[in-house]
Every structure is written in C-alpha cells, then in structure tokens.
Amino acid sequence: MKFTDRINRVEESLTLAMAKKSRELKAEGKDIISLSLGEPDFDTPEHIKEAAINAIRQGKTKYPPVAGIPELRKAISDKFKRDYNLDYGVNEVMVSTGAKHSIMNVMVSLVQHGDEVIIPLPYWVSYSEMVKYAGGKCVFVPAKFEEGFAIDIEALKASITPRTKIIIFSSPSNPAGSVLSQNQLKQIADIVKQNPQIIVISDEIYEHINFDGEHISISQFQEIRDQLVIVNGVAKGFAMTGWRIGYIAAPAAIVAACDKLQGQFTSGANSIAQWAAIEAINGDMKPTEEMVATFKKRRDLMVELLGEIPGLEIDVPKGAFYLFPRVSSFYGKMLGGKTITNSMEFCEYILDTALVSIVPGIAFGMDDHVRISYANSEAELREAVSRIKKVLT
Ligand SMILES: Cc1ncc(COP(=O)(O)O)c(C=O)c1O
Q1: What is the Å distance from ligand 1's center to 244 Cα?
Q2: CA Rg, the chain, in Å?
Q3: What are the residue ranges of helices labelled H in 323-377?
Q4: What is the Å distance from ligand 1's center to 234 Cα?
Q5: Separation between Cα atoms, residue 151 and residue 156, nearest integer Å
Q6: Which of 78, 87, 95, 393 has its CA 20 to 30 A from that of 275?
Q7: Which residue, judged by its Cα, is nearest atom 14 of ligand 1?
C-alpha cells in the first residue's frame, strides 16, 4: 500500500504506544495502575447530562449548522464577555468536534509548505504532528525548567523568521501543568505585535483547572486581537472528554476558513453534545470547583510523595492534572539489569517493574522528563508512588 507523503510525515503517538503496552500487560492479568491518562476521572455533572437528555427528547437530533448551533455560539460569545470582558461576536466563534479538531482546522487553514510554526517546549503531542501534516516546519523553543517551564523569551525572539506563521502553546500546560506568567504573556504579545504575519494560537483548554488564582490569558492584550486564536472546550473543565466539543474565538476571516473546511469534511459537531455544552458554559460551576479542589489536594499529595524519591526533580505544577518531573539523574544507571538512557526506557522500566504506566517526556519534546497524571483516586496514587519508589531506591 502506498500512502501519501502527508500521512507518512505524521508519527504515531507515543502516548498511545505506552497505553497499548499497558493494555497488553493488563490482559495478561497484571495489576497495572494508569497514571498516563489525559482526562479527568470524574463523571460529567448531572445537570449537563440532563441538558443532553432533554435535547434528545426534544428532537434536537438533526444536522446542526456547520459552525455550531447559534445558541452555543452565543453562549461562548457571552462567556468571553462575562469572564474576560472580551468582545467576540457570534461570527467570531466556532464550534468543532473537540479542541483537537478546532486546532487542526486552524493549522490546515493557515499553514502551508515551508511555513514555520514555533512551539515552545514542552508541548502537547498533537501540535507538532498537525504542523507536519499541514506541510509546515516545527521550530521548538526551549523552556527553563528551573523557572517553572518559563519560555526562553530570547530564544523565542531568535527563532522568528519571515516564514514564521504561528506560535502555539497551552497554558495551563499539558504536559507540565505550568502556567505562563502575566509578564511572559506580555513579552510574547509584544513579539507578536512586532511581527504582523504571526498568529498566536492560545490553547486554554485547562482554563478552569488552575490552582493559584484566576486564569490568565494572552487575550487580555487586545493589541494582538487580530493575530489571536483562542482555543477552548468543555472536555477538561467539565469532565466531558467523550462529548467532543471544542471551540475557537478568532478573527472572522479565520472562522470563515475553518467553517469552509469543516463544512466539507466533518460538518457541525454532535448536536446533542452542543446542547450539553451550553449548560456546561452557562450552568452551575460547583461540580467544576469541587473537581479542581480535589485535583489540588492530589497535586499536593503527589508533590509530597514523589518528593521523597531521591533523583526525581519536581516543579510544582500550578494547573492541569499532570506533573512533569525531571528524571535524567537516572540516565546512565543500571536499573533492572539494563542501563536507562532515555525517557522511553525509564517509562518501560517503571511499567515492567512497578506496573505503573506513565508517559515518556520525549512525546512532549523533553526527553529528560516524564509525565505523571494524577487523574486517579488518592488510594491508587498512593499505591502507584509507593511502587515507583520501591523500584527507584
Ligand atoms: C493541551 C490540550 N489541547 C487540546 C486537547 C484536546 O482537547 P479535546 O478533547 O477537546 O479535543 C488536549 C487533550 O488532551 C490537551 O491536553
């Protein structure tokens, strides 16, 4: 079978490779604890489920408009006003089948052969593969681990060329749980303003899972409004990963391009899930607040327990539900009869001996690290860390 160059450019997700290996071990009867999940372990709140059930009962089951049902686009537009005092008209927001789809629409609409996309490290796995699929070139910018994964702003400046089309990042970040400071966002906005050919994609899907105060968004710098795409969705903040609703706020021309693309290839997102998303955005935030409080407790627990393992270096995350410790002090050491040389081997060792699945940092562009998700019960987290500790000390 001869496949296209564009599909051959895309690499299979390492996250999925690890998940497959842990499934195989589970099938063999091994008691695997998964700390590799990228989704809340909570159930979708009842009031949101009710909205979906009502939508089904009311027959809201026909093809929805491509860019989203007007009621949801209005709810999103109102949310930007309510939460951030931003004015986005209904024609400047668009709904897709998950934030992943939203980002892909934008990438495919804006990036072509030879274009460069700047991706600060560590980055969410799919950004690089979307860029490659679209024919663009990824330009990675280093992070300063000691400064809470702050972007190296001088390196960012130096990486800009006339071919730079996009800068994309997530804050709060998957995989690091780090949050870009007000000052960093301002510096990025200034750089973008000086380079009018650049579009920023600000992935704010972890908006609500923020432990140290209000979410801070680069959108506050209105001088770059015409160069900004805000990505968000209901998956993480409302435990709705399976419902598949994401959205963007962006200049109307970008929305129109994404609308054209989506209209030909996938059509509007699931109508029932869109009605549920309205309830998520407009409804009671208490379940989200409770979930975030639980994540914060688990974060503290994990920082404490993992902190007892010599050689694991931890930056205390400020959001999302991941830790991204540096583990390179173990590289070059013999563990389980094998010398560990990279994050993949480290994770395989942990999976084989501690029966805990975590994700190699190389999947996010930083091979000295591993991603540990704490979207799991306290009992499982305690057991997992105690097993990891046993095989590392
Ligand atoms: C940073 C980031 N952006 C986007 C997504 C995709 O979100 P959705 O499930 O809405 O497609 C994820 C999911 O893991 C994510 O971590």
Answers
A1: 10
A2: 21
A3: 343-354
A4: 10
A5: 8
A6: 87
A7: 38
Question: What is this structure's pTM?
Answer: 0.97
Structure tokens at 33: 């604890």
C-alpha 100 to ligand 1 mean position (Å): 6
Two structure tokens written together for 135:
């024919």
| Block residue for tokens 């999302």 | 320
3-state class of 338 per DSSP?
strand
Q: What residues contact 326, with CB distance under 8 A and at least 6 apart? A: 145, 312, 313, 368, 369
Per-residue model confidence as pLDDT tens digits over 226-270 = 999 999 999 999 999 999 999 999 999 999 999 999 999 999 999
Per residue in 95-138, pLDDT (tens digit) is 999 999 999 999 999 999 999 999 999 999 999 999 999 999 99
Region at 267 (left for phi over 0; alpha for psi -120 to 50; beta for the rest): left
Distance of CA 145 from the midpoint of ligand 1 (Å): 23
Can you give the length of the chain in residues?
A: 393
CA of 329 to the centre of ligand 1 (A): 30
Handedness of CA 125, 274, 243, 371 (dihedral sign): positive
b/e map 193-207, b = 16+ CB within 10 Å: eeeeebbbbbbbbbb
Which of 36, 205, 231 to probe ligand 1 with, by most ligand atoms within 8 A of CB?
205
* 141 in Cβ contact with 122 (< 8 Å): no
- pLDDT mean across residues, the chain: 96
